[in-house]
Specification:
Number of strands: 10
Structural class: alpha/beta
Helix content: 25-40%
Strand order of the largest sheet: 5-1-2-6-7-8-9-10
Number of helices: 11
CATH superfamily of the largest domain: Aldolase class I
CATH topology of the largest domain: TIM Barrel
CATH class of the largest domain: Alpha Beta
Strand content: 15-25%
């Protein structure tokens, strides 16, 4: 999956009234498709760039309407995830037939105008609260052209813009197409070890760390907010070794503000919905919410390095 191959993204959803994705009240545009494959991904439905189908057993009323209409006979109660995706041709007839909403299409095409029309009614809330629009995912930088057009349109409506990114992108294109229209960048620094990053995120991290290193002084000079973020994943990113390495990396760049994101395990259920095998489902650490003591220790390490988290 390369940026040249992908022109128009599928949108997972546009979430309004968000208080967790930047300053003020915000609308969050969730893209589908990501160059990383983190084993703990909190939006597993965003990994693939292509459309998918999901099934929520908690909503299903077992009426059989979907099974009756499926031309490929891909649906059965004894299937591992209810849907045999090797037989499913994504015709979505079952979604249309489902009276409860247990079956759903994951990812839809939206034009820039469609997105703006969806967001525009919330602008008074942005203006009152100091909020705006956050582009998240997935990974918005996979779609440089589209995202640039969207950011330009948002700026025409005088909206604050924020990008949440994994950091794996072509920096030159980023600077030309996205950077001029961004007010804030949330940049994930998950793991310092390249080998560990490849093991747990699917790719090495040299480009990510290089991009952040180059971006930090430019953002500071231009008055933009560049905020590094680290999710505290049990026994993966929250180890003392990794946190100390991240703190040293940030301190060397004169970074004094960062975010350590507490872990929550709600992604396991989302994996089941899109038929993704979950090797951590019976791992006690990965199925529990953040250990408060571990979080405090990580923040103390950052504080010792002069970094407020």
């Amino acid at each position: 999956m390369t940026q040249n191959e992908i022109k128009t993204p599928l949108i997972l959803e546009i979430k309004g009234n968000s208080l967790d994705d930047g300053p003020g009240i915000r609308s969050v545009v969730f893209y589908k498709g990501c160059p990383l494959s983190c084993v703990w991904c909190h939006n597993p439905e965003s990994k693939k760039a292509s459309v998918e189908i999901s099934f929520d057993p908690k909503v299903c009323i077992n009426c059989g309407a979907c099974r009756d209409i499926c031309p490929g006979k891909a649906l059965a109660v004894d299937n591992r995830f209810y849907i045999d995706r090797s037989k499913c041709d994504l015709c979505f007839l079952c979604v249309e037939a489902c009276p409860s909403g247990a079956l759903d299409r994951v990812g839809k095409t939206m034009s820039i105008d469609d997105i703006i029309k969806k967001i525009l009614p919330d602008k008074p809330f942005f203006d009152t609260s100091g909020g705006g629009v956050t582009l998240s995912g997935g990974e918005p930088t996979l779609y440089m052209e589209f995202t640039s057009g969207l950011l330009k349109s948002l700026k025409q409506h005088n909206m604050h813009t924020l990008l949440e990114t994994c950091g794996l992108f072509d920096l030159s294109r980023f600077m030309d197409t996205l950077y001029p229209y961004l007010d804030t960048i949330y940049f994930d620094i998950k793991i310092i070890s390249s080998d560990a990053h490849k093991k747990y995120c699917g790719v090495s991290n040299e480009k990510i760390l290089e991009n952040f290193t180059k971006l930090a002084p430019m953002a500071k000079n231009d008055g933009k907010v560049l905020l590094p973020r680290t999710p505290l994943i049990p026994d993966i990113t929250d180890t003392e070794t990794n946190i100390r390495q991240i703190a040293a990396f940030l301190k060397n760049l004169n970074i004094i503000e960062a975010t350590l994101l507490d872990y929550n395990p709600l992604w396991h259920e989302k994996s089941d919905k899109v038929g993704v095998e979950d090797p951590y489902k019976s791992n006690k650490g990965m199925t529990s919410f953040s250990d408060k003591a571990v979080g405090e220790k990580c923040r103390a390490i950052f504080a010792d390095a002069g970094i407020n988290s």
